[in-house]
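Data deposition worksheet. Section B asks for the primary sequence of the deposited chain exactly as it was used as input, without tags or linkers unless they were present during the calculation. Section C holds the resulting structure in token form. Section D is free text for depositor observations; keep each observation to a single sentence. Incomplete worksheets are returned to the depositor.
Section A, Depositor: J.P.
Section B:
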Amino acid sequence: MWRWQGRFKALRRGVGRAPGCGMEAAVFLGGTMAAGVTFTRLSRGDLPGLVEAAREDDPQAFAAFLAENGSSVADFDGDGEIFSVLLPVLCDEYDIDLETGENEIVADIAEAREGPVLILTQDDKEKYFELLNPDEFEEDELGEAYEDFTEEEEEDAGAAMLEAISALYQALAEVDAGYVVVVTAG
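Section C:
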């Protein structure tokens, strides 16, 4: 689950939400996310330790835990804020709901670190891997979806969303029964 504060009008009102695409994804981040995004492969057995690291007073403990126990599996050089539009668009327009895996763990981490987090699971891979193939998306169509969702024009939005889809696809390729990918921003 990727949790966001309702920054965009359509998301705040719940307009166009597909069944199963819960509004819980819109309640979290206390500002915009003009930050980098990391994709870290982590053993399922390490998830309780990740929650504990997120709860520590040291703000670096979470990132340190990921660095110590996981490995980077995807590259994304764009602005992480694009995920605040992409994830709801994927859910609403393409029936790809990546925001529901590991709900309890994500909620614990998100609450403790006050930053967005998404955990990609084997279940996500089985449901969405083929659907997330970047070759199946059109940059122009993604740009239009961005504009429809935000009610703002952004010249390179389609390209940014396609780059983010490529990173998610690359990350999902690394998921299996014993490993998840933790996606964080900030």
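Section D:
Strands lie at 37-43, 71-72, 117-120, 179-185.
Residues 1-19, 22-34 have pLDDT under 50 and may be disordered.
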